Structures are given as C-alpha cells and as structure tokens.
Amino acid sequence: MHGYDKHAFEPFAVTVDLAVLTLRAGALHALLVERGQEPYAGRWALPGGFLLPAESAEEAARRELAEETGLADVTGLHLEQLRTYSEPGRDPRMRVVSVAFAALLPDPPEPHGGGDAAEARWVPYDKAQGLAFDHDRILADARDRVGAKLEYTCLATAFCPAEFTLGELQQVYETVWGTALDRPNFRRKVLATPGFVEPVPGAARLTGGRGKPAAVYRAGPATTLHPPLLRTPREGRPA
Amino acid sequence: MHGYDKHAFEPFAVTVDLAVLTLRAGALHALLVERGQEPYAGRWALPGGFLLPAESAEEAARRELAEETGLADVTGLHLEQLRTYSEPGRDPRMRVVSVAFAALLPDPPEPHGGGDAAEARWVPYDKAQGLAFDHDRILADARDRVGAKLEYTCLATAFCPAEFTLGELQQVYETVWGTALDRPNFRRKVLATPGFVEPVPGAARLTGGRGKPAAVYRAGPATTLHPPLLRTPREGRPA
DNA sequence: ACAAAAGTGTTGATCGTACACCCATGA
DNA sequence: TCATGGGTGTACGATCAACACTTTTGT
C-alpha cells in the first residue's frame, strides 16, 4: 500500500484517449485518426497519446486536442474525464493504462492531420465502428455519458458556439438523443432554469434563411439543471 | 500516438485507491488505514495499492477490498470507478497515477488491519479529514458521486444487506443526503419503480424493537430510476 | 400571398407533497 | 394503553405534454 520499494510495482505506460464529439449537419460526429504503425496500422482510432513526465492526464488531453484539431485556443472547451481502461490485453504489445476523455466542440474546424497521425477526419458517429484497440467501446461510453449528462446538466451549450439560438440548442438535444422535442415546451424549460442561458440584448439571427429571426443567447453560469430535462420515449424523427 | 518506441513514454506507477463507504449507526463511515511508512507515516489514508502485472484496475480494487475488509466474498459488492488522479505532484516521491473507486458495503465487519497497513478502522465521514496524499479530495468526490447516483439509480440497495425493509432503504437516502424524507411518499416512489425492489413473500422483521413488523424486500433487477428520486431542499434532521 | 421558423397561450392529465389516519407490536 | 414504527388514503398545488395560435421574415 503505497510502499516505495522501486521494484514492488510494475511500470505501465499511461496514455490519454479522446472521444472528440461535435455536431455537423445535424449529426453527431467523432474525430478519428488513421493509424500509421502496427498494431492496427491503417485502422481508425481515437486521437490520444502518452502522458509527458510533468503533466496531468487533463493537461495531456488538452494538449492532444489542440494538436489534433489545430485549434489555437482550446481553453474554453469542455473536457470531461470518462473513465480509465486498464484491462491487461487491451494493447497487444505492452501494458497500457489509458485515461479516456470526452471533448465537446462547437462548429468544428477541418482537422489538419498533424502530429503522428497519418490522417485525421470527422466521421459520423454511426459509421465510426471497427476502431483500433477498445476504442469502439470508449466512443460508445462517451456518447452514453454525454447523452445522460444532457438531462441534468447544462452541457448542451458546449456543443454550441459562443452565441446561439434556442433552436440550435434544441437541435443539440434532438441530435444526441435521436428524439424530437416540442419546441414551445423546450423553450420554457430552458428559460425557466436560472443561469442556463442568458439573452444577448438586441441580437437576432436568421437561421434557416426564412422565418422570424431568433433571439440570441449565451451560455449562463449554471452547470446543473433543476429540474432535469428528461428524455421521453416520444418517438420522432431525429431532427 | 500509440507509437511503440520503448523510450517514447515515461514509466508511471499505477495504483488504485478505494473509498469504502458504509452506514453504521445512522452515519456514513469510510474505511481508513494508518500509514506505516513515509511519506505521511502515521497519517490516515484510503486503502489502496499497486496494480499487479496481470490485473485490471477493477480486479486490483476488488483484491484490495477483500484484503482490507477481510470479507470472504466481495463478488457481489458494488464497486464503481470514480475517476483517475494524475497530477504530477500528488505523491512526493514519484509519479503515481491512481484510479479511484468507490465501494459500497452493507453492515460492515470489523476490518482486520491486514496487508501492509498498520491499522484499519471505520471512521465517520465527518471526522475523516487530513488524510494523506489527495485522499481528502477523493473521499469527497466519492461522497458526491454516491449522493448524486442515489437520485437516478438503484444504488441505495448496495448499502443494504440482501434482505431489507423500506425503512432501512429510506435511512440510506436520509443518511447520505442529510435530509429527511416523507415515509409514505418514499414508499410509493420506490414501489412504483419496476424492478427497484422485490418483496420477499411471507417475511417480516421488527426493526426498532417496537412497532409493526416491516415487510422485507430484496434488490430488484433494475439499475436506473425513472423517474428519478430528487433531493428536495426540505430541511430536516439527518436521521 | 405563402412558407418557414420563432415565439405565446391554454388546457387537461399527471405527478408530487403534505398531512391525516389506521395497523401491529413490545413494554 | 401507550409509544413506536409500518402502511394506506387523499386533496391541493405544481408541473408537463400537447396543440392551437400569433409574429416576423424571405420568396
């Protein structure tokens, strides 16, 4: 128990894996990289990499995120630790313990395939299967977690740009959950939650080319939703 | 990213830390061990230890749990991964990445201080402060997580023995949340959730020495609570 | 004028809370 | 028979889902 005999423990490699999620064209997408080396050469995988000696897993995740997306400033982005995957056989070559994160982006830039990755690309969530290692499972866990957290936290704004309309916010819910929501009721629930969104005075934006311009909102200071916005089994077309 | 140059990564020690929680005499308790070596010799800490070469973090956690509690069978106990703590300075001697778990026990046995720990003891949650390393924070995170999961999962039964009364189940909520609940309404909510609890036919038990014998229930197959059992700010004596 | 998208109003059903009340047991 | 804890009934208020309706823009 925390003894310090240098030989009492096995050295492990520690990595971070990132499930980078965003919404493009009304569908959930994940950022994938094509592996250049064995094992799994040519297969798609989640971006990630080794921890550097002086950084925490959170810092490593943010560094990798910046490298993979090419974003200059990733400080504001939502980064959430999912869980740690440590099964002995998860990497065929050596013992690797991986701390997995979910990252949520608005309005994604084209990834610039830098770093060691052969190529990086946004892939629709439904087509992101057959990934290397246990990344299928990590990605599924990320989606489950994000879907659940939409219910009782203000996480949805992390998928939106700094200023957004309530219609755009509703599309986040509809896309991630795959259900349709009633617009009047959604609006009331969101506005009834103090600190979820704040109006941007005087601003208005046309969303679909036609129709009444929508009021513009910013994310508010609240982090939790009371009462929660529950997923109801009302089937509907997913946006 | 997942390159295999053996020198491209820094070796880390990987440990598990356990926040073992239980209810004794109407109060939340945590299992703590007294450290025998530097650093933090003589201080109290969460039980834990290094991963063995061939086991996952979950397996290591269950092994440590069995060692510390002296329980013969820990297979049925609820073990939940909290998060991973990886800040570079969290251990003064070396780089240690620790996967933290919360474990929930019913009816705790006296710990038998085995293993490397000088002594192991159940400590009331409110008095468990000044722990070694960042264990104060891990323990607080464990309590927060458990309290939150009581709202929307069937986790409460993990604090109860195999057969329990609804009054005992209600005490779990009241103790962890520190609020009083309305008994008739609690009963209805629990019974209205399919699969939360199942009646044990014909069984009844006296709880307080006096009063009507209570019907006995078992944990059901359900894992999530729909609708959730929300914490209301109705102040009341904490059981 | 029409379509499309935002926003408001209203109503009936459901749910939750608070509380009164009855039941079974030990002292 | 009283205290104690288990269990049932009920009524009022809050909340929510559903849908009708108005407003503002582009074509």
Quick overview of this protein structure:
Two copies of one chain form a homodimer. Chain A is an alpha+beta fold and 239 residues long. Chain A is 22% helix and 28% strand.
Q: Explain this structure to me?
A:
Chains A, B: Belongs to the Nudix hydrolase family. Chains A, B: Pfam families: NUDIX, WHD_NrtR. Chains A, B: Keywords: Hydrolase. With 239 residues, the first copy, chain A, is of the alpha+beta class. Chain A has two domains: 13-141, Nucleoside Triphosphate Pyrophosphohydrolase; 153-219, Winged helix-like DNA-binding domain superfamily/Winged helix DNA-binding domain (Arc Repressor Mutant, subunit A, Orthogonal Bundle), CATH 1.10.10. The first copy, chain A, is 22% helix and 28% strand. The first copy, chain A, has four helices and ten strands. Chain A has helices at residues 57-69, 135-152, 166-177, 183-192, and strands at residues 13-24, 27-34, 44-45, 48-50, 78-85, 96-105, 119-124, 163-165, 197-205, 214-219. In chain A, the strands form two sheets. In chain A, strands 1, 2, 3, 4, 5, 6 and 7 form a seven-stranded mixed beta sheet that branches. The first copy, chain A, has a three-stranded antiparallel beta sheet with strand order 8-10-9. In chain A, a hairpin with an 8-residue loop joins strand 9 and strand 10. At the A-B interface, strand 1, strand 4, helix 1 and strand 5 of A face strand 1, strand 4, helix 1 and strand 5 of B. Chain A binds a DNA duplex (27 and 27 nucleotides) through residues 165-167, 182-185, 187-189, 206-215, 227, 232, 234.
